[in-house]
Amino acid sequence: MKMVAEYLEHALQFERLAAAEKDSKLKSDFEKQAKAYRKLAGERAKQLGLPEPPNPE
Hints:
Elements (H helix, E strand, L loop, with lengths): L1 H19 L3 H24 L10
């Protein structure tokens, strides 16, 4: 469960960075990184038999 929370925290950090970023390339990179961490959180939750974390979209 701890890893799921850590992945989600990383995703939130990258989402905050993306929201504040003016450079479109860097913003896109931050959004991709956030999506990757959310995917990891979902996969880990599934492995642990936990519900999938909510997606902010």
